[in-house]
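From the pipeline queue, job 12 of 40. The input is one protein chain; the requested action is below.

Action: predict structure.
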Amino acid sequence: MIRLRKITFAGLLAAILFAGATASAAEPAEIIRQPNTGGDPVAGKTESGFCQGCHGVQGISFVDLIPNLAGQSAPYTAKQLRDFQSGARTHQTMSSLSKSINATELADISAYFAGMKMMRGDGSGNNPAAEKLFRNGDPARNIPGCASCHGTNGKQPVSATYPVIGGQHRGYLQVQLFHFRGGERSNSPDGMMSRAAKNLTDAEIGSLSDYLSGL
């Protein structure tokens, strides 16, 4: 079985401090006003200061288990924040932090990260079997192709409520797939991800995460 790495509170605090120190030296993030997001990305840059400590000024995190937000769909990010607020999705840190964000700030922050240059993998993780599963799924086991919702490279979701997953961190993808499969997470639209992950093996979750993180 694939073992999931755990982040201790001290480790997370160190990661936040390191990320914050590194991000402060980065070049200013380019602001791109996205249409129809319902939020102001310029205001979101300031309002997301506490988010940037973990997720990076440019939306690229320094910790494998903390997701990249760069170029993520604003409606998707906004939904996740609302789900953390309501308890539909839970996380030790995000469930608490999300409650300090009002509706306007939530929309602005989502728009800010949506305007970043989209996350991109390093080209590693070439795996023909994982690519086939990503594109075609396995109808015999009722596993749909990931591309049918997330796009051919995981970066062109067919709906704004589906996330960009190409170029996302391997560890984060792996944990989320395990959580969807095990029922710890169940907040995808119509329960799609819970059904999709239900019949994936540990090895398939690992190989899909490798493949997607390299895109």
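Job complete. The chain has two domains: 9-114, 128-213.
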